[in-house]
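Example (one chain per record):
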Amino acid sequence: MNLEYFIAKRLTTSKHHKSSISKPIIKIAITAIAIGIIMMIISVATGLGLQQKIRQKVSAFNGHIIVSNFDDNQSEVSKVPVSTKQDFYPEFKSVEGVNHIQAVASKAGIIRTEKSFEGVIFKGVGSDYKWDNINEYIVEGNIPNVKEQLNPEVLISHYLANRLFLKVGDKFNTFFMKEDSNEMPNLRVFKIAGIYNSGFQEFDATYIIGDIRHVQRINKWQPDEVGAFEIFIDDFNKIEQKGEEVYEQTSYMLDSKTIIEKYYFIFEWLQLFDFNIIVILVIMIAVATINMVVALLVLILERTQMIGILKALGANNWTVRKIFLFNAFHIILRGLLWGNAIAIVLMLIQQQFGIVKLNPENYYVSEAPVYFNWFYIILLNIGTVLVSLLVLLIPSYIITKISPVKAIRFD
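Predicted structure:
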């Protein structure tokens, strides 16, 4: 049996230890470790969860990479058509990791009802559109049928429906301006097939989704002409690499842009969460280790006579230090067990019931998302233990300065 571990275990389970002066100090240290790991797990889970949810929403409405004409058009509206007769369409086989490509076209318009009006962008989609990405955001009705004959069905946001006093099944007029401002605008009457609510104000206040053939007819395009291609990839972490590969595999007349480039202001804001998470981790580990240092010093002071006796019996400094490090490890482990249990319960509650709400205008989501990953949880626990024990090596050095003769006489 390991001597140091045996003595440390006897110390932590002895009745004297439970009624000693160090008891409240140890409880404080356990509480500090528990609070620290709770804050670290929750900050990582919510920070990464928010990043993933926002990435998911942006890509659901735009794809991961957008291929369009190489021009100076900075708007969301499709100006010059792109032919679908491309080597990469309808399947982008030349770039590994691309799982889907779809053709879209956009047209700016104004919805006019009896009570209100709103400027919108009509996003035309075809039979290749990946509805799976936005199905989770549909709160009423169904997706419009764009696979058969041209029909007036559209998907509108909950935000626009409320502002225009519309509901599923209602019809409304939409006016599309022509290139020649002197000509009368094109009028289309659409019917609401479904209502979506992404919680992403930038999209909800802008887009209605319908058949791409409406845009083609309004713009007098051919059936094989579209506004752009949206490309989806398997791994978002490789988006910059895949964006470059897609650019190299497309014609010199076409431009490709990742959603990180298109919505740089959103993704720069998301990067701040990484910094915030690191700051929280550093602060929490610092607080926990400081409390552990105090607890260890109190334990050493309380067991000064024992240290003197062990040294007198022939134990070297490192043997005695390991006894107290094992003792500290036991305290850290208790704190981690309580902290992990509480943190996991809180995350599961938030994941199931969404108790903590957020303002979608500021955070792009209506409730705090949680990214539950055991790898990060285990990594945080191992990191906390290692950092704490490494820091505790410093105060344990005081044991080397204790003289056996003086320690045995210490009272």
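Caption: Residues 115 and 165 are 8 Å apart (CA to CA).
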